[in-house]
Fold each of these.
Amino acid sequence: MLFIRSVILVIISFWGSAPGQWTDAAGPDIKTIAVTVDHPALEDGPEEMSLRQVFEGGASSYFFLEVESVLCADHICKVVPVRLFWDNYGRYKRYELEPGVELEKGEGLPFEKEDYEQLDRILANEESALRELSYADITQTKVHGEVDAMSGATALILSDQESIEGATWTCFTLWHWVHGEMKNKIREAYALTLEQRQLREMLDSKEEEMKLFAYESLAYREDLEEDTEWALLAQAPRLTLEEARIICTAQAKWPLDFRVQLSQSLLTNPAEAVRLISLETIDKNEQEEEFKPLLFDHLETISSLPEADKVLNILGRYGPLMSTEVDAMQEILKEKDLLITRRLFYFLQNQKLSASQQSVMDDFYRQNSHYL
Amino acid sequence: MKRRKFFKQTAGAGLLSGLLPLSIRVNDDPVNLGKRSNDHWEQMGKGKIGIPKRQKTVQYDVAVIGAGMAGISAAVASARNGAKTVLINDRPVLGGNASSEIRVTVNGVQSLQNKHRVERETGIIEEMLIDNWYFNPQESYPVWDHVVYDYVSQQSNLDIMLNTQAIDAVMHDSGTIKSAICWQLTTETAFTINAKYFIDCSGDGLLAATAGAEYRTGREARSEFDESFAPEVADGWQMGATLMMITKDMEKPMPYYPPSFMIPYQAEKAHDRKINQFKEGYWWVELGSDDDIIADQETNRHKLMGYMHGVWNYIKNSGEFPEADNLVLDWVGSLPGRRESRRFMGDYILTQKDMETYKHFEDAIGYGGWSLDEHNPGGIENLSEPPSYFHDRFNKPYEVPFRSLYSKNIKNLMFAGRNVSVTHIALSSTRIQGTCALMGQAVGTAAALCLSHQLSPRMLAQNNIDLLQEQLLRDDVYIPNRPSRDPKDLARQCQVIFGDSTATGDAKLLLDGISRDEIDQIHHWSSSSKPAQLQLEWLEAQPISEVLIKADTNLQRKIMMHKNPDKNEEQILAVPPELVRELVLEARVAGAWKEIAQLSDNRRRMIKLSFAPVQTSALRIKFKDTWGADQVKIYEVRCYS
Ligand SMILES: Cc1cc2nc3c(=O)[nH]c(=O)nc-3n(C[C@H](O)[C@H](O)[C@H](O)COP(=O)(O)OP(=O)(O)OC[C@H]3O[C@@H](n4cnc5c(N)ncnc54)[C@H](O)[C@@H]3O)c2cc1C
């Protein structure tokens, strides 16, 4: 999922002598959520952790998690607690240290002011090369095949902007907490606190990330409120491919009559890819004839072979056409471009045809024999 | 980096041969090699006295000398593209440094500083590596030899000659090579191999050298090509040769008694030589030369055997490594693997600068991207310096030009692998076997094209480079910044291409001439489930007899075999699960779909379906299964008449 990166510049005031603000870990407005999450540096697999959701004015405002600065098997490095903060959508906001506590680089050197700022920038970068590094890359410098005894090999994989010299483990550990499985856990937790009404409002948001979140959250719900159904029907003609994908995957859990209406609405979307996904979804339903009328309607407006092919494949499964349906299709035979009409012609060839219908076919054949 | 002095003392043997003139030498009496008169051979079976007359003359279009990854790729490409080819190797097995005799990991472009850390080589090298997981998931090196032998010996148009060394060249008056004189040691036979084109992939390049092809050894001065990692003044440095080993765990303490030729390892003096694993030996058990590495080879081999046992003795008997108590040597190398000797000069010399600036070559035929990893020739005798000057890493692949792969002065001679026209600093990256194999496929393909179009390699480079590039792209080689635009590809003329579902990418991208995803640029179509189907539709019927598909093998994941199973961590030890395993091809004839080809247990990224010509306005490919993945991902579809 696309992440709209909003690098939040934090004024970090918790190092040196300045007294820091260490967010309360408990309180009336703080909910503790037990989550089981994995991290590439956890040797024994996923661990249970306490994610905190902070409410402000009754609404979920942000999340935080307390982790250790380094997950380090041999415990040669100093470990301090670090709090990581995300917004409701699982986007990184900032980190915090307990007042008076410092992060360390190699050989016991404390972080400098620039290092703290650098760490914040690294954590804000979802695309960091840290994603591709494995724990082994960092701990055993065997990143380089033949030259596996070279010291400092990781520094050569990560550019200066992507690591802090002597603190690659810290960067790696924290980055993978920030951008790992926790993001989805947060989104799920946030979604649970929202009413369908609130999700519907988000559908009109200007922020794509928020819209996607709303679609994702609705996709989990089986019982859609009537207003939600209306909202989805209204959105369908302008959904992006990514949004349409979320909705189409969810469709199976929704009632048939709503699915039919939704498909109809999706088929008016100007993007061919969206219409195709909608047709794929109908295709998966196999036997449900309720879609037949809308497929016939759609055939009339079709302008591309992939869609025509898909529609005819589905229609073919409903059994032989009625004579009126053949007539309707033969109308189209006269109008569309040859790639589509040829497909239609081959489709009709296998239907039971009246004499007049057959003569339409013969005419078509005569006119286009070169292409058939 | 200082020029080392100590070789001066041991270079006596090398000096003499260094004084020999390098002028063109034509073999005076080539047949002399197998001439016999003094045998007293009583052939009991025949009841006669005989003289063994073991001299043979054979005729090929293309002769490839040396069967490392470069030579194998060259020979297979040449034969596949229609030239009658022979592959000559002086060892009993194929594979060169990658064979069970030496056991160097077949690495390729990796550790790039980019979203694609790995940019795997496709084409012939990939086919062998995938075959290896199919036949040899147990990662046995001797079995790998047979996997390679199986792959090469299946190729029609191609003969293999093992235990056969090319030792001299016979020249035409025109200055081209007429024959390679070879000695096959197992049959005591002297072979005269006549060929129209010769490709020297032997690493050391004895044939090319005796033909008088210009070559260099040592390091270029920094000023010559403006290479920042080159020395101020040119010198003789040649990266060394290494003996590897493999250990096994006996699950109880085991003693180690070193052999008499062991040379103690002076760990306290060693710089940057880490012993952080005990499985696969140490690449820094290495010795080079700063004069004549070929002359030094046997002296170095003896010493390397001693040094290798010295390191193991240190591990087992110094008391520093209790982790190694239960370990024993299971395999030890006796034939040092070589990194550098002769570099033959082409019309172009690839340099550090070209690589670091990612220079675009109109005649690019492949790419590299291993770091600039220049080993110190003093190796284990020069412990105060690091074993490799590990200069720099690349962000993306650099291009390799065809003009670096043929001789500037011998018209019918090409080369590929570690002996090509690159500077010493450039070789510190291009020597990696994945890169060598791409060069091999390029020269093999070039030889076949030169033959069919009656061209010299230089003419091909200067006037017909599109021919070569298009054939390579068709045969699943990737050339950065050179998409295919093959006018013969009928798929490009289709009106519509579409899949029955699309999870990512777009079926139209299968015709864009780039058959892999590039950084931030997608070139694939992926279905959302399997089975899946792709359809191509033309307005008018096309005559089609071949369909080529480039499927997914995940080029960002490594697939080589390792001596050390720890290095398998992020690999899949099987045929890539993404790869299409089973498919059916159908053509629409008179409105009805008809099966025209099918394939099961496919192991190739490049799927080639050949069939009796059909006249059709639509094709559909039904992908029935993969080797595990739930979706079908494809990078290219081509159709030919
Ligand atoms: C210990 C070591 C570690 C290395 N590490 C890596 C690594 O991790 N990954 C990597 O990819 N590369 C590595 N390299 C480099 C790589 O192995 C070589 O650069 C590469 O093998 C060169 O390939 P080639 O095909 O040109 O030659 P080779 O692999 O050397 O093959 C040449 C073949 O030609 C034969 N031959 C030679 N002369 C004649 C003749 N006159 N007639 C007939 N046959 C002849 C040889 O016996 C051999 O079989 C390493 C090298 C060494 C030695």
Note: Chain B has a mean pLDDT of 93.
Amino acid sequence: MDPAEVEFLAEKEMVKIIPNFSLDKIYLIGGDLGPFNPGLPVEVPVWLALNLKQRQKCRIVPPEWMDTDKLEDIREQERKLDTFTPIPSLYYMELTKLLLNHAADNIPKADEIRTLVKDIWDTRVAKLRLSADSFISQQEAHAQLDNLTLMEINTTRSFLLDSLNYMYKLRSNLQPGRSQDY
Amino acid sequence: MFVTDIRKEFYDVVVNQRVALFVSPDIDALCACKVLQSLFHCDQVQYTLVPVAGWQDLGTAFMEHKEQYQYFVLINCGANVDLLETLQPEEDSVFFICDTHRPVDVVNVYNDTQIKLLIKQDDDLGVPSYDDIFRDDEEDEEGDGNDSGNESDGSAEPSGKRRRYDEDALERRIERQRARREWEARRREILFDYEQYEFHGTSAALVMFELAWVMSKDTKDMLWWSVIGVTDQWVHDKIPHMKYVTDIATLQRHVSRHNHRNEDEENSLSIDCMRITFEYDLRLVLYQHWSLYESICNSSYTSCSFKLWSINGQKKLQEFLADMGLPLKQVRQKFNCMDMTIKENLREVIEESANKFSMKDIRVQTFAVNFGFKNRFLASDVVHAAAALLENVEKDETSADNFIKALDCLSRSNLERLHLGIDLAKKKLKAIQQTVASCICTNLILSQGPFLYCHLLEGTPDVKLFSKPLALTLLCKYLLKAFLCSTRNKRCKILPLIMAAPLDVEKGTVIVLGIPPESETSDKKNFFGRAFEKAAESTSSRTLHDHFDTSVIELKMEDRGKFLDALITLLS
């Protein structure tokens, strides 16, 4: 999968905006949206929120988890434990990137949030690499990892699968007798 | 006619239509175009952007687009000529003109249906009143007709009565004709006074920004573009200093409004957001992207005060640097690499020393923009970069390509283009400085009586740069200032300057430009537009009055002599 595809899937997440125009309820295939009234918050998918923001038709309210204190707690927990901690949103990395690139003026302390999310990401990906490494070196048959997000899985997917395939081919070549039985 | 409510009469009309945008090649127009484009993007208005370099381009572009579009927006072109007669449009075409050229043609002002002027009426326009210029011609004809009718009818009446009646009628007719001749003479005089001097009004970018503000859709990007538009008018000497200061004060109010809106103590903005600050900064061109030494040598203000084309001048510059206590090694380095201790109080130190060397106005009010950690630009930096990109002669590209590149460099996401523009601007300024130095040292400026004249020969280095109007204007102003500083002849100090530079060697044309005399309180009113027209007519020289600025024309090299003679007789 492309990281761009994962970002596309992330844009379906809902986020709260405060529009400055009014519009009746709109009926889309994916669901109903609205009605929009100036000054009243409404939940919309991220793709619509970004489009409206770029046309200066709304103000984006940052999600509750996008707060320096909460993110600091998550980061500390992540660093303490060996397993993955549950995080508030399955698409935290993509949402942070999208919202901070397009709506940084609506998000307080945007620079610190960017640093904190990057720290959390680095810790989790490091843990993932460690566990993939130990999986291959100890030649385990199966493993279970909880609380991973799609973006993190995506970083390791192609590498892990290809290396496991090669390992299988190498192992089957090492035991010529058994393979001849097929 | 003048538009009173720009939102209702202009924006709400075009927001649901397809619009053709004709933009002239100067930085103020580019900025106004950017503001209008971002408004159109917000509301998803379909538009076509056409850069037009002169009247012929405007005519061709109009021919191409008149079938498909009903609404045309003209930026910095079209106000000073009778547009309906030049373009011959259909009845239903509507033109919205946002132009800084003054005086506005009277037909454009008094046409109620097809021409809408997006111009602030508090600019001192001085448009003559309707009755002074237009008059119903039918009354006169009817009166005459009655008289002649009476004469023929009255043939049956007794002769005595008829003779008296005839005399009265005749007297009335003579009276009317005399009144009419007087009215026409007065009309000619009024129009002559009105159209004699050409000058510039409020920046188009500022007008567009105020439209955005009225609709509450103004952003910092748009504010920055309107700052660049106003600074462009000041850099290219189109508006007097007082008007610049007033416009800057207006912009300063908008800047503080934007700054207070987003920032407060606890939730400070991300460093990547754009911040505009009001600065009382030095008048040294591009000094933050160059070394301080180069900047002092190539800015017209400092170079003319020190007279840097002479050896004495160089010595004075060294004294100035020594007076400030700046070591030469530091001053010749790139500004970003200078010592922090020197950079901290640089402006105050320079101002103090400048006062000792009789440079009282080394600091000027302007704005700077900051975004990210690396990027800091003054408004005049961006103006010079964009102008250099717009008139880039290095590669063989069409003027439309250069226009698009210059338009791009104004967005925040195209910083490499902006830096490229700054490099080109540095080359241009160095070329200007060297040309000025050589002109002064070889006495190329001749006094022709009512004006000064300078002709750039073909072999002059970098002469290709000066075949473009903006670069040639900068050279002219710089040269005039330098000449004033270097000459002792008091009479020459109040003369205007005409400059000719080769335009196209194969066709044998030169570009001729005239600027008004240089003075502290000059109101920048330029009479050369009309003078050039009259001189060309009287000598039937082959000229092309294609530029929107009427003081810039193209002329065949062979006709130069008789054209100048005609000008001399006209102006003395």
Note: The CA atoms of residues 10 and 95 of chain A lie 7 Å apart.
